[in-house]
Specification:
The protein is of the alpha/beta class. The chain has 15 helices and 14 strands. Keywords: Oxidoreductase.
């Protein structure tokens, strides 16, 4: 187990800021990530710097070197507080694992086939497990890890059912370990700024949130194993929007259809490729979430658009390769701010945050209750669609 170190001073958070990543990408800083900058005096800076230099290195094992693992590996490799000890995947992925080590100059990692993965859990120098495997393997790996005394970072979703998510958190609590869910939107500078503007009261009373996602085409094998559009894709916003609004939804209703070029594959697994989720909050605020899982071929990346309407102001935000955060005042004037061009920095910031949580430098910013709520909402969305009905507060419990 990695020792939990206590900060040298009680006001260390005034240096890093609560929940703030220690390493900030240049584009995050240029786009408003200043909320994450150190802002203490020079004495505080030296004190914190000296403390961090004495922190133990966190030994980690990465399960899965596919898409998610390929995102997390360079972020782990660039963190001076991390030693990558193990890469675990099926034997066919060994060459990719070795390629990642060569590309990012990692000479501490050893590859293990899935069959030999028990070595990770027996290794006393491995303090944390990073799970980037397909979702169907998450629950077993989480429980094996926490029982072995390892802290866990798990890509979203934790698993397919809310009951299983609750069980995973109960197991982590039983063994006194951290379970950190990878909702990277909470670590994206633009999403953070948007929430700060809402929570500061700049918009007045919140009336309406509109979110639109246009994702790239999914391959058939992924569609068949993803768990569906709600638990795999919409769950990001089912976590973020309640956090943005500051309330738990009181009701929801969902519609959906299959209209993409691979509609037949979605229909085979009882899924949809396009959906509209309507949420209502106790304050009266409405949220409409639109998700389409296929763009025309000439679009090289997905894009997301937000519109947040209050009684005093309105904000539009576009997440594309040329992003702008636009605030419209009630008098018709507008104020533009440059936004970051992608989510890549958010993955680094969430991983750096996880490592600091393991070290005991800060509390986990994602509570079990909030993660369970997002998974429960995803399940209720599916219920609403399949049963073609309104889901009320009573259904939500």
């Amino acid at each position: 187990m990695c020792p939990r170190y206590q900060p040298l001073t009680e006001d260390w958070r005034t240096f890093w800021g609560p929940g703030s990543p220690r390493i900030v990408c240049d584009e995050q800083l240029a786009a408003g990530g200043a909320t994450h900058r150190a802002h203490g005096n020079e004495d505080q800076e030296e004190e914190i710097k000296g403390h961090l230099e004495r922190m133990p290195t966190v030994g980690v094992a990465l399960f899965g070197v596919g898409r998610a693992g390929g995102i997390h590996f360079p972020n782990l490799a660039s963190n001076n507080d991390v030693s990558i000890r193990w890469l675990v995947d099926v034997t066919a992925m060994k060459d990719k694992a070795l390629m990642l080590c060569t590309k990012y100059g990692v000479d501490t990692a050893r590859f293990l086939s899935v069959e030999d993965s028990q070595k990770v859990f027996d290794d006393e120098e491995t303090h944390a497990v990073i799970i980037g495997t397909p979702t169907r393997f998450h629950e077993e790996l989480i429980k094996r890890a926490v029982r072995a005394g390892k802290d866990v970072f798990c890509e979203k979703p934790i698993t397919f059912s809310t009951d299983a998510v609750v069980s995973c958190y109960a197991e982590a609590q039983k063994y006194g370990r951290i379970l950190f869910c990878g909702f990277n939107r909470r670590f994206d500078a633009d999403h953070i700024r948007l929430r700060e503007k809402v929570q500061s009261g700049q918009l007045g009373n919140l009336r309406f949130v509109h979110y639109m996602a246009r994702d790239c085409k999914q391959v058939s094998d992924y569609i068949r194993t993803s768990g569906g559009i709600f638990i795999d894709s919409a769950i990001h916003m089912l976590d973020y929007v309640p956090w943005l609004v500051g309330e738990k939804p009181s009701s929801l209703v969902v519609t959906g259809s299959c209209t993409s070029s691979v509609a037949a594959v979605y229909e085979q697994v009882d899924d949809v490729d396009s959906t509209i989720i309507n949420l209502q909050f106790p304050s009266g605020c409405y949220a409409v979430l639109e998700i389409t899982r296929e763009l025309p071929a000439h679009f090289v990346s997905c894009y997301h658009r937000y519109e947040v309407v209050g009684t005093e102001d309105c904000i539009l935000m576009h997440k594309t390769n040329d992003n702008t955060l636009i605030s419209f005042a009630m008098d018709g004037s507008d104020r533009q701010e440059q936004a970051t061009p992608s989510y890549w920095c958010s993955y680094k910031m969430e991983m750096d945050c996880f490592i600091r949580v393991v070290q005991g430098l800060e509390e986990c910013p994602l509570t079990p209750e909030s993660v369970i709520q997002a998974h429960a909402l995803a399940e209720l969305c599916r219920t609403s669609l399949k049963e073609q009905r309104f889901v009320s507060a009573e259904d939500m419990g």
